[in-house]
Input
Amino acid sequence: MSTIDSTATPVMTAGRVMGAYIEEARAECLRYLRNPGFLLPTLLFPSVFYVMFGIFLAHANSADAPRYLLASYGTFGVMAPGLFGFGVSLALERDTGLLTLKRALPMPPGAYLLGKMCMALLVAAIVSVILLCLAVFVAGVQLPVGRIGGFFLLEVLGVLPFAALGLLVGTLVKGQGAPGVINLIYLPMAFLSGLWFPLPVMPAFLQAIAPLWPAYHLNQLALSAVGLGQGGEALHVAALIGFTVAFVIVAARRLRRHG
Amino acid sequence: MNDTRIARLINARKSYGAVTALDGVDLDVHRGEILALLGPNGAGKSTSIALLLGLHRPDGGTATLFDKDPQDIDARRRIGVMLQAANLPATLKVGELLRLTASYYPEPRPIAECAALAGITDLLSRRYGALSGGQQRRVQFALAMAGRPDILFLDEPTVGMDIDARQSLWASIRRLVSEGCAVVLTTHYLEEAEALADRVCVIAKGRVVSEGSVDAMRAHVSLRRIRCVTSVGIEALQAWPDVVSVDTKQGRTIIATAQAEAVVRRLLDADPALSELEVQRAGLAEAFQEITRDTDNLQEAA
Output
């Protein structure tokens, strides 16, 4: 009769553990890139808005409008992959049993969330490239290469606070209710952060509470990146890091308690 | 004697709020055996499996996998899982799902071999969401064995499968067991437990009410099954002494009783035109009914 000792646990090499993380990220990217219900609105909304307001209607605005709106719609564009990619998918997967199965399987710790994060970063990169192409090649925005690179990097990393917020919402809401809740955060926050109308034309009260919204800080940084900033970058970066850490801590606590 | 127990619950208790799901369950799974967990919905089968998979921690008692905490990933690297309700990503292809699941394990089974064993070789390049329910279950089974597990947890594996698919899945399970893999199976299909299990464990109201081999389980109740075509009505039969249950199927009356001879004698007297008479030892279905009814009675008396 065989004993437990005679069939010792096979060793999972560090290489295979790393491979599991990569496979998880690959699978997560593939499944969302193949999901038009997620990908199309995420890519189309910011680009269509930019084409309408930044290009066709730009002559009604100042000469800086295409550059200004590149920042606004860039920020708007990376909110969606974070909020929807994390929030909606986590809420659904907690409901449909996929997360339970993943927790039962020997998936390395955090691979599930890291995979989603890679997917959100990738989609944010695609949104940013589309908007930059529209701005530079169609709207004729003149930006030095350094600023283009800085804007791209900022927008890609800028998805992280929204991924963290999506993660938190995904732990609070379960199932089909999540898209509604996420939209209730996404659209008002875009408006209140000055992504649709410049903050200076909005009521003083709304201007005063704008620093409460992560999108406001990312947008201020995006404006700085395209050369229309008003300074205070370090403060905005600190605010975004603070939001991200706070969302992740609360979400992690809820995930640990409720699964 | 060597210890062959690879998964154990020892006096495990678990409550969800005010609901007691497990009320002191002891369970041992031995290397290479097929253990069937039977019981009504809400009896605690799924909770028992959830504790062994480390999805929940017991409130009291212990759960171990290979002498480790089930939440220890090293222990879980030796298991395979097929859960009752798990919607896998619909836009991924079957081959991609297998590749992903295999990546979690130290020495996975080659993808082609998993596919062949589960009979899904022709589905590898199809998207999971485009498959029928039965095909999806077979894919989930392929995923469960992708890691070359020492123990396989199958929660209602053949729900939604037709009879051919079910039998070929049973054959695959037997093949895995012949390689030394243990299986913990929950099922509603008693013939599934009869066809596969070495041991049966009946759980009701969060407790193990009976445990033993399929034969022992059947012998536990001395019920036999009388089948015949008769004009005697169900209501009348139910009122007879020693009759445990009466059922009709395809025009036949099926009576479960511990006193087959007496009931047959009375039947023949009551209905001279009776035909197609058969008497069989009861299956697990009746045994199971009897066992859970006994517990109900005990609890009512208590």
Notes: The mean pLDDT of chain A is 90. DSSP finds eleven helices and no strands in chain A.
